[in-house]
Amino acid sequence: MTICDLQPRHLPQARLLAWEAARQARQAVPDLPPCSPEDLPDLTPMAENGLGVAALEEGRLVGFLAVRDPRPMAYGSTAAGVFSPIHAHGVLPGSGARLWQRLYQAAAEKWVAAGAGYHSIALYDSDRTAMETFWRCGFGQRCVDAVRLTDPRPVDVPRGLVCRELRREEIPLVRPLRRLLAQHLTQSPCFMSDSPAQFDRWLVRAEARDTRLFGAFFDHRLVGFMEVGGEGENFLTRHPSMKNICGACFEPAWRHTGGAAALLEYTAGVLHSEGAARLGVDYESFNLAGDGFWRRHFTTYTCSLTRRVDEGAMTRAIW
Length: 319
Fold this sequence. Notes:
Elements: E1 2-5, H1 11-28, H2 44-48, E2 53-57, E3 60-65, E4 80-84, E5 89-91, H3 97-113, E6 116-124, H4 128-136, E7 140-149, E8 161-165, H5 175-186, H6 196-208, E9 212-218, E10 221-229, E11 242-250, H7 259-273, E12 278-284, H8 288-297, E13 299-308
Parallel strand pairs: 4-6, 11-12
Antiparallel strand pairs: 1-2, 2-3, 3-5, 6-13, 7-12, 7-13, 8-9, 9-10, 10-11
Helix pairs in contact: 3-4
């Protein structure tokens, strides 16, 4: 086996490997939308940035690993980071952990040399070989993608709770809950800390985006919300049959009351009546309260893993 730089000439075979991984993921999670090789995003930029690697056997591509260009201040840190989405890697079906190890070892050398101290990769939850390989290479779980059908499920609605879609002029009603969610994510074990100025800038962007807000009201007061957009964090979420939750929060007093489940089923029912067959969500796995809720109502299909390279490796040349 030969490990070399990923080149544009490798992309036709690389696309087939990535599509095969998506096909196997759908076998494991039938609620996922169908896809074809043509649905995968263009890999050309990641084959031209010099940060990808390919594994060849007698001229045949048996594996590849690519990343987007490094981004500064990854996860709010002082380090740059690279990310490999689910369509930017793949191995020949039946390959063992050793192939993944060799791909990462060769690619990580490039990433560190380019100044990227954070290494992140999104893997299909059903690919246990890849998952265990990256765990052994020092990665930990950070994010999750999950999916469900929009067919409404029976749920007990707490007495007095009213669920409905918010009108455009009611968007400011959500601000206190958005702030509550941001504060929750700064606490243990999430530690996703933003300054008040950063939150205010994010709030402006959030309120300007083209999404729909569904709210739970008690005594005419908003106590919880869910925000739904057209796309999520990976190419599968762009399927026309799929909508995606991009934000949700309930007041602490309303958690564990069934209110969030009631709002979820109301939201799913509205989308179902409009022809959307699937609903997706992405969230941080270390948000333990959110992780427990989403896993009860959705099926996970990706996990994003992250590693932070030791600081010393970023300040000295690689031998």
